[in-house]
Amino acid sequence: MSVCGVDIGNLTSTVALARRRGVDVILNKESKRETPSMVNFDEKQRFMGTDASAKVMMNPKNTVSQLKRIIGRSFNEPDFAEEVKNLPFSVTPGPDNEPLINVTYLGQPAQFSPQRCLAMQMADLKLIAEADQGSKVTDVVVGVPAFFNEKQRRAMLDATRIAGFNCLRLMNETTATALAYGIFRTDLPEDNPQHVMFVDMGHASLQVCVVAFKKGQLKVLSQAFDRNFGGRDIDAAVFHHIAAEFKEKYGSKGVDVSQNARAAMRLNNEIEKVKKILSINPEAPLNVECLMNDVDCSTKLTREKLEELAVSTFDRFLTPIKTALADAGLRPDEISEVEVVGAASRTPCLVRTLEEFFGKQVARHLNATEAVSRGCALQCAMLSPAFRVREFDVQDVTPYSIAFRWDKVAAGADEGADDAAAGAADGNSVTSVLFPKGNVLPSEKMITFFRSEPFAVECLYADPSQLSAGIPQQISKFEIGKFPVPDGSDKAKLKVKVRLNLHGVVSLDSVQTVVEVEEADPAAAAAPTSENGDKMETDAASGAPAADAGGEAPMEADAGAAAAEAPKKKKKVRREDVAYNAATTGMNAADLQGAMEKEYDMAMTDRIQEETKDKKNELEAYIYSMRNKLCDTYTEYVTEGDKSSFNSKLDSMEDWLYEDGEDETKGVYVQKIGELKAIGDPIEERYNEAASRPEVASNLQAVCKRFTEMATGSDAAYAHIEQGDKDKVTKECADALMWLQDKLAQQESNAKTAAPVVFTADINRKRETVERFCQPIMSKPKPAPPKEEPKPAATEEKPAAEGDAPMETEGGEAKEGMETANDLD
Ligand SMILES: Nc1ncnc2c1ncn2[C@@H]1O[C@H](COP(=O)(O)OP(=O)(O)OP(=O)(O)O)[C@@H](O)[C@H]1O
Ligand SMILES: [Mg+2]
């Protein structure tokens, strides 16, 4: 049993499994812990991860990456439209300005939503986990940047569903990191919390959060971020400088990377490598062979120069750090530790800036690229009923203030949220902030309405300044109604329950009409019941004559008693569900189902392709190996004529493989392997039989020798066995040895190129027969010695006294519970 944590990075992704013995980050098939976040669309299949990154240079237009920057975004966001221009693949606006990714797949133009592409990446991580676990892995917690808005979160959830996961939580990446940091700490204070800042410097964004830790608890105090600051910005700053230098140096030979997307990509890759070297060394060479027009380009970069070039990006670095501190209401000296994660945290200049600001060294308790997936796997284990994990309360918060808005009713009805500050009335509408920034997740709120007609409630971001440009303020809209208005009243009372769930997504949980009714207290008036029991009680309570109950009950008598003793009334609240329609940003059920089916089909195509390649490789490998063995290992076991015709068959099969058979189906390769094996297997068999025959023959001989010695020797251990039985054993062994000798002699005169006379399986069977015959005879137990008279009391065994029970009994040793509270400690 295992549950999964996934960190989808902009550059690389990791998957971790929580199992009984702890949390492991899982190696992909290249034995790497990090898998490139890429999907390549090819002529016959898709490639993921490392396979996709191997294709990006050759086929950049069909290799999709940076999906975390695309999912849940819209062309209405100016910075998104700008970002898309720099992508090597095509992203165009679809319906409602939603992005669509354009590629060529299976030789045809194809369009995919970012949800589907990200699901492909997730499904690949799922396969990596399942290959390691050896069984299906379904439950997952997926890390998302804390700044992901509702639309991005819902899109991410849709991607998990398409990938076949059951997402128990979308977890803010910094909170997952905090959990991975805190759950194993045994020194957390009981009372005064310890404040730790987490700084995650990734490829495309910077996230900061301040967390208060106490024993068994983490509480997020604040979150801040720069959505557009990451390691790639340092690469970009250096890229412009080096591109200009190369143009100046090699421009006369036609080098200008701004004119060639592939050259630009290769230069960028090289810069990223050099940047990593400069994190350790003061300078590094930068060489790109045949960058453009077969020109080798080279230069040298120093760390000093890199820092000078990227200084403008570094300037932004402290802004979210200061914001997080201010929002948490803490001074730098009140932060006991600054834990840095994300691979870009290896940039010396960024670390130096942090250390200067806080006046102390940063901490690196966690693995910079694995903390998020580990934290997610831990959270998944905590949420899964199959695990027991050490009690640890995770209190995360929303970084955005979320409000609800509805039309004001004319009369001053006392509408509004039950436990939120009164809503602000604006013209014809009321807006009430139900989940302010910093509100704990999950959280529920109730809003009361007095209405006679269907109405709408809108969910929106309360503070547009918290959003990046172009993000619509409205999150979702709920149309409520129709509903019954109680008799004698002009309005129904409605309770609307809204929830900010664990994923950080707002949903409408229920809408109910609430009617207060007075009912007879059943203890005071045991009114008869009928099918319409409620109504009967109500009628009786109101003093109305009881309805005809078929004339069986003495109704008059009861009614008379009720009249004499004024019936006691009890207030009761009746609630009835009201239908509503939710307009949210996620995919609708039909589209989601369609996407899941398409993903299944594509995965099947990939699998068949992989199996076809495996079979093709198997055929090729068979040809090579058989050709070698025919003139080497198997040479004695095949006649010259057969060897020559088999060799020609292998040659023609090889020619076919590289010509007509280059691109065949799995079935054809399987059939061709069969054709060759029909010839090759008998040769292989003759060789294998000859190679193993001496050993199995000597095993049979040894067995016969052993039993013969037992039966004919003078060993006292077998003295009790009857001579007749011993003779049978001796005969069985002698017959078996005779049989073997005869077969081996025939085999000796048989040509090595002919089918064996005796098979090793026959010899083994003979040995088993001998053992089955002789063993029961030779292991007959000795007869029991004659019984002795019981000895006097002195030797009598003392009955075990009470309390003398053995210290250890079969069931006496306490077995450890299958699941203990520290299972994942
Ligand atoms: N040794 C290093 N020195 C400096 N930068 C590095 C080093 N190693 C990796 N990086 C940079 O770190 C960034 C990748 O960080 P990380 O793997 O944490 O990102 P990610 O999780 O894929 O993306 P994100 O968190 O933005 O979604 C890249 O820009 C990479 O160049
Ligand atoms: Mg990351």
Automatic annotation (TrEMBL):
Keywords: ATP-binding, Nucleotide-binding. InterPro entries: ATPase_NBD (IPR043129), HSP70_C_sf (IPR029048), HSP70_peptide-bd_sf (IPR029047), Hsp_70_fam (IPR013126). It comes from Pycnococcus provasolii. Residues 539-565 have a biased composition (Low complexity). The keyword Nucleotide-binding applies. The keyword Nucleotide-binding applies. Residues 522-575, 773-825 are annotated as: Disordered. Residues 785-801 have a biased composition (Basic and acidic residues). This is Heat shock protein 70. One of its GO terms (cellular component) is cytosol. Belongs to the heat shock protein 70 (TC 1.A.33) family. HSP110/SSE subfamily. Gene3D superfamilies: 1.20.1270.10, 3.30.30.30, 3.30.420.40, Actin, Chain A, domain 4, Substrate Binding Domain Of DNAk, Chain A, domain 1. One of its GO terms (molecular function) is ATP binding.
